[in-house]
Amino acid sequence: MKHSVYKFWSFLEKSCTLDTDSPEERRSKVTLVVITGLCSIASVIWGTLYYAIFGPIITTFITYGFTVVLGAALLIYFKTKRFAFLLYVFFLMIFWNPIAMQWSLGGFAASGVLMLWSILAPFSSLMFQDIKKATGWFLAYVMLLLFSLYFDGYVSQWASPISNKISMLFFGMNIIGPSIIIICSMMYFVNAFQKEHERSEKLLLHLTEEREKLADLTALLKRMFGRYLSTEVMKSLIENPSALELGGERRRVTIMMTDLRGFTALSERLEPEQVVQMLNVYFEIMVEVVLKYNGTINEIIGDALLVIFGAPQDMPDRTHRATACAIEMQNAMSQVNEENRVQGLPALEMGIGINETEVIVGNIGSSKRSKYTVVGSGVNMTSRIESYTVGGQILISESVRQEAGEVLRIDAQREVLPKGAEVPLRIYEVGGIAGQYNLALEWKNPALVTLARQIPLRHTVLEGKNVGKKGLEGSVIRLSEKTAVIALDEPLELLTNLKMNIGDVDEKLSTRDFYGKVIERSEEIGHAHVVCFTSVPPEVDAYFQSHRQHAAKSAAR
Length: 557
Known about the structure:
The chain has about 550 residues and is of the alpha+beta class.
């Protein structure tokens, strides 16, 4: 039985509604069809009963006419699915027809209060329209009820003589009929509402589960990228997860590459635990500065950082941000070295290269393992620019200088020919930035002192990872904590990397390698060059310090 009823309701829903209807529209349409159908069936029963008792009187024809009109309206509705049409016809017929039948039978007593059926008009309006319209129908029903009471004495003269039993039968039928229709309609309406409520609860539960999954995903993203992305970029990724899908796009970005000078040689002299400790201090401070300027840390490669400005979040002022970030990072090296000093670790120096270029940026890899990164020749060029730096220096490309404009303080410029390049590259040394950020490098190189006795040395020219000329002679004639003026046998190109050893000392000291980069040519004597030290072991540093102190005392006499 239950299965049959379910199939009947399913058939009604399929026949009465459109695929585009909402659950509420489906519920309203099926309920109206049910009420209309029940009223049509009731009118057949009432008409047949009236015909059996009174014969072919006007009431019989009114009753059957009601059935014909509602039946035709239902057929038209099934054909056209015009809900407003069926609603209008039903309201008109269910409101006026019972009243007309009651008047034709001779009033309240003779009809058994037949106009009780008219209450279905405001009841249906309450379900299918709104409270305001339902109130209007109810007021019309009350007014018509009062009107019928007032004229009941007049219409009662048309009443046919009937027994008390027939009168009570009419009265009972006119109470039971509307009650059955109302209760059946409400049963379907409430049942449909409960199903919709259950569906809503399931949907709410599903949404809650999805919200929890989203919260877990957000937490995962924060764990994965929180150390490398600023809060603003993190919010952008969380609001737009599609930015993390596999694929890439062509975009202009500013790339910054940092590297610790002489770190490889330095790490060879330290215990692994000390190297890790030193790197943790360095990265803790540097990453904080990068995130402050909304940079995206793309790579941590040993002691180097690859940072992107302008992806995944657009950044119109990316060159300004990158340059200001680089200056603040260089100035923050004093904090890094102060913490290293407290922990008994050596001081560090960092070089930074910046390049503005067009790259492919996006998630690259496979569905199982991918990485948000940048690809393009501009990345390699940034690395080349950084390789020309010495500790405390920031070098930028021509594209960065043009994009940033006049706010940069350029301390020096030169042309270089990077490996693999066909034309020279002009690079610029940045000392500060004006405008919004208004920063300048705080690092200053101590003055060079002229040595009382020159320090002989041997040097080897390094060309990238290859070793060039070996065993060349030279001597240090002036010296500071970070640089030296060295007289060589022959001229060297600017930015040439050198590996050096002190001469005329014991074997233990003479085998200690130290490294530097040619940054200037000096006109003092012969082939003199200014060399910036990039890595100096403690033993050599102590030896140089003693010479500087001796030179300072000699100059003071």
